[in-house]
């Protein structure tokens, strides 16, 4: 299958998930994350879930991060430049959905990319080598290419890895680990 075919298939698979399945699987993913040796860092980048796309609900991970007194960083999307800017999430941060349904900070303290230690990455599908398929706009690949070499890249997926290997492009960044409801995969 092509990347486009895989993208469409996994969008359809997610649309068939019930609200209860999303909640239970998101809790299971947060519990799997707690088993990983990733909690010694300071700055954690977390994507805020798009409910209409039935993404992994990251609110559970947010509670874990806050409970561990971590600095949580969230992004604002810039569609003209296909880039992200990153802001510290605080009690005062105002979050609003943009026209694409992405919850984003409206303002706040901007965090330079080099400070980010761990990035939780959204995805539609992934393979046994840690390559992912996202929505196809390249926002996260550009962002991950800006990160330090030792920044941990942690994918979150409702589904297990693809049987076929994906053919990465030169700008694609492989993940270090992917967490599913059942287990986690280190690459």
UniProtKB/TrEMBL annotation:
<dbReference type="InterPro" id="IPR002698">
    <property type="entry name" value="FTHF_cligase"/>
</dbReference>
<dbReference type="InterPro" id="IPR024185">
    <property type="entry name" value="FTHF_cligase-like_sf"/>
</dbReference>
<keyword id="KW-0460">Magnesium</keyword>
<protein>
    <recommendedName>
        <fullName>5-formyltetrahydrofolate cyclo-ligase</fullName>
        <ecNumber>6.3.3.2</ecNumber>
    </recommendedName>
</protein>
<dbReference type="Pfam" id="PF01812">
    <property type="entry name" value="5-FTHF_cyc-lig"/>
</dbReference>
<keyword id="KW-0436">Ligase</keyword>
<dbReference type="GO" id="GO:0046872">
    <property type="term" value="F:metal ion binding"/>
</dbReference>
<feature type="binding site">
    <location>
        <begin position="132"/>
        <end position="140"/>
    </location>
    <ligand>
        <name>ATP</name>
    </ligand>
</feature>
<dbReference type="GO" id="GO:0030272">
    <property type="term" value="F:5-formyltetrahydrofolate cyclo-ligase activity"/>
</dbReference>
<keyword id="KW-0479">Metal-binding</keyword>
<dbReference type="GO" id="GO:0035999">
    <property type="term" value="P:tetrahydrofolate interconversion"/>
</dbReference>
<keyword id="KW-0067">ATP-binding</keyword>
<dbReference type="GO" id="GO:0005524">
    <property type="term" value="F:ATP binding"/>
</dbReference>
<comment type="similarity">
    <text>Belongs to the 5-formyltetrahydrofolate cyclo-ligase family.</text>
</comment>
<keyword id="KW-0547">Nucleotide-binding</keyword>
<feature type="binding site">
    <location>
        <position position="50"/>
    </location>
    <ligand>
        <name>substrate</name>
    </ligand>
</feature>
<dbReference type="InterPro" id="IPR037171">
    <property type="entry name" value="NagB/RpiA_transferase-like"/>
</dbReference>
<dbReference type="GO" id="GO:0009396">
    <property type="term" value="P:folic acid-containing compound biosynthetic process"/>
</dbReference>
<feature type="binding site">
    <location>
        <position position="55"/>
    </location>
    <ligand>
        <name>substrate</name>
    </ligand>
</feature>
<feature type="binding site">
    <location>
        <begin position="3"/>
        <end position="7"/>
    </location>
    <ligand>
        <name>ATP</name>
    </ligand>
</feature>
């Amino acid at each position: 299958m092509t990347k486009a075919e895989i993208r469409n298939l996994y969008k359809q698979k997610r649309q068939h998930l019930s609200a209860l399945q999303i909640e239970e699987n998101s809790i299971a993913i947060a519990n799997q994350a707690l088993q990983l040796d990733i909690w010694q860092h300071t700055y954690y980048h977390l994507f805020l879930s798009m409910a209409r796309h039935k993404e992994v609900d990251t609110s559970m991970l947010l509670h874990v991060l806050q409970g561990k007194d971590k600095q949580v960083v969230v992004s604002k999307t810039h569609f003209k430049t296909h880039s992200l800017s990153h802001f510290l999430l605080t009690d005062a941060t105002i979050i609003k959905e943009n026209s694409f349904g992405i919850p984003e900070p409206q303002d706040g303290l901007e965090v330079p990319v080099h400070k980010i230690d761990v990035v939780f990455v959204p995805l539609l599908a992934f393979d046994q080598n840690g390559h992912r398929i996202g929505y196809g706009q390249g926002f996260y690949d550009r962002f991950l290419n800006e990160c330090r070499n030792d920044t941990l890249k942690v994918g979150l997926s409702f589904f297990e890895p693809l049987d076929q290997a994906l053919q990465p492009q030169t700008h694609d960044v492989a993940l270090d680990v992917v967490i599913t409801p059942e287990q986690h995969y280190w690459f």
